[in-house]
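Reopening this one. Same input as before:
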Amino acid sequence: MSTRSAIGIMHGENCKAIYCHSDGYLTYVGKVLLENYDSTKANFLVAQGDCSMLGKEIGEKIDFNDRMVYDEGSGYAVQCRFYKRDRDETGVDFKTYFNDKELFAGIDAEYFYVMKDNVWYVSEGAEWKVLSEAIDEELAREYNTSESKMLAY
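Same output, byte for byte:
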């Protein structure tokens, strides 16, 4: 089962957001956004509408059914796969939300990523955290868990 996420960008008090189907967790979508998407690129990303997979680059039209190409160094998809651009679907354009409650109710996702004033934030449907700090916390938690397992042997 996929880890679904929402990706949005604030425009004043409103959030323009899209659904992203795959790998929505902090250490994939979160890191890809943080490392590869500034405000300009994030706006262009959201303008493409809902996506199946987030990549380092927005890219160009591809056959939706082709295998994804991954960057060997980072492990991230080289480019995004969009429902509208790459599969000619309709009804998958970005949507505008007027508050957090609407965003959380409007997109079925485990993680919500929003850029505001050139800073990425993340929420799991409640409080917002600065994305870079949330990723650091997640990596520390994963490290501590794996270290505990190793000590148990």
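So the earlier flakiness isn't reproducible anymore. For the record, The chain is about 35% helix and 25% strand.
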